[in-house]
Specification:
By secondary structure, this protein is an alpha+beta fold. The chain is 29% helix and 31% strand. It has 10 helices and 18 strands.
Length: 382
Amino acid sequence: MSRFTPSVLLFLGLLVAPFAPAPAAEFETAATAAILVDYRNNDVLFAKNPDVPIPPASMSKLMTALVVFDEIKSGRLALDDTLPVSEKAWRMGGSRMFVEVNTRVAVRDLLRGVIVQSGNDACIVLAEALAGSEDAFVARMNDKARELGLENSHFANVSGWPDPEHVMSVRDLATVARTIILDYPEFYELYSIREFEYNGINQLNRNPLLKANVPGVDGMKTGYTSEAGYGLVASAERDGRRLIMVIAGLNSSSQRRSESERLLEYGFRNFHEYRLYEQGETVAEVPVWHGEAASVPLIGEDVIGITLAEADRDRLRARVRYEAPVPAPITAGQRLGEIELMLDGERAAGIPLVAALDVPQAGMLGRMKGTLDYLVWGSGAP
């Protein structure tokens, strides 16, 4: 049996540059629900009614697009494929990209129609072509919601059309947005397109923060119905930090813009990412049993850090947990431990640590030597 290596306590003050902490003012918003999330580590920086199911309006088109992205990634669909426009799609009300009945439209144009123009008709074209009917496509959306662990979402249509059974929480919307950015970066750039012309009709992206050139904003999706009020999912990156914001239930488009801009600004100015280790930096060396190397370095899969208000920085500690020695063979990327981040002694986050490289099993002579070393010196083996 392997022995447990005691946790190593790392004092954060030794790992980040000191500064005079200043408390962040508590944020207030007129929105009925809102959330602000750090993209890298999914830390919640602000939340108001984050898990209340609300009508998402067109913000739910993020899930519609995500299912389409899955189809493209799987190879079952290509951007150059053309899909037929039914009479149902042509007659669809609300925001439209103005497809014509009995024509065919390229997938790349339909995605722009959904994302830039918020076209309900484009959503129907995609749903009918990919799943046979809107209802069948909606079933896929609900399946994807379960896969992502969305606990307060249920879809009744592909467009966000008002329906009492069509709901999402702002936390769930942030999860879908983060999934798109993380898993489909090649498609995320579509959300920064400022205008798109189809069928001779040019329409501007409805995202007010794109229009206002708010620093770092490069997506994502607005929503409005009389039932839902005005909402926005937005993401912005500044100095290597990305935040995702969702805000809902506002009374006007101007209020949506001002409250969204205020919340993003609050996040960037009052919270900071404290990095313990950069991506690929060795956190610990773990002894290896019967391997060609005596030890293997542990690293994070990404930057290891946490986003906090400045006032919380001195309350943060970190410790590394792993069991040793690890029996060979070991594969690069194999999870071997974690670094645990603690606030006032309470667990705030656990970040996996993985092997930085392969360690093949030693040959017969090497294994015999390892066993002999253990018998003689009592180390290097379980």
